[in-house]
Amino acid sequence: MKIDAHAHVTGPAELYTFTRELAASQGPMRPQRPQLSDELVEASLTAHLAEVRGVGTDLQVLSPRPWAVPTAERREAVVQAITRAANDMVAQCCRLHPDFFRGVAALPQVTGLSPTICVEELERCVNELGFVGCKINPDPGEGGAQTPHMGDEYWYPLYEKMCELDVPGLVHGGPYRFSREPELGYFITEETVAAFGVLRSKVLQDFPTLKLVIGHGGGYLPYQVGRARAFRIAEQGRTPGLESLDESMRRLYYDTVLYNVESLELLFKVAGVDRCLFGSDKPANGSVKDPKTGIALNDIAGMIERIPWLTEADKQAIYEGNIRKAYARLK
Known about the structure:
44% of the residues lie in helices and 10% in strands. The protein has a single domain, classed as Alpha-Beta Barrel (TIM Barrel). The chain has an 8-stranded parallel beta sheet. It is an alpha/beta fold.
């Protein structure tokens, strides 16, 4: 069975007309949230389902698009309303296709405010909508304001609730309107900052059951692991008993949203096959086809199959076994 642990859904355009108008509203008159019919949502899923099922995926763990929630918006009520609407749309997709979709919650993060404001929506999504995880934006200020890295106690209220509910968090960049980097660099940079922040903190000791999935193959972490090991060795000299960097890295999970075989091989060797979750980010910009081969760049399963040293047990773990360990609520 192939379970895709990194996927997003767009939904009908009417939803984003509402969210844009709500974010732009300043006075007492607020736009009415649209009632999205099943027919409208189903129509928005036609191309999505055709592409993903066409490559043999059996189940997708689905979250709203990263730009769906304007986390740099300072009005908490606006962010809460937009997040709730986006999550309800995901829940509608799951209800329409219970054999193919499972939900992952966007969080109503607001720069400058404690992640405590996310707890109620996370509980609603898990306990009422049946979601199996959440998606965490490590930079809710969208490059325009300072937010502590994910090793800081600022994040502890969210971690406590995730452990209580036994749900993992996909660490994934969000909107990037105020960043000097385009999407390609911004997402990976922020996910790397998050991973290094966690690895160089007490988070994994304070929350031994916390499950974090570092998006897009762990950001730059696997590529920079040598320098990271050097820093850890120096720290071990000052702090007897401190575990190695590789031991700490194996407390995190990593998805396979990497668009070339060489990067996938590096990830599997550095992080360990047993910490990697199949993810394709289908359909997204990687759905474009290589002009030389005619194969979509996000045909991750095809790349995994071309790695000769992976055993059948390795592939089963990547496609399904590891995902079920991380997403305990995935039935």
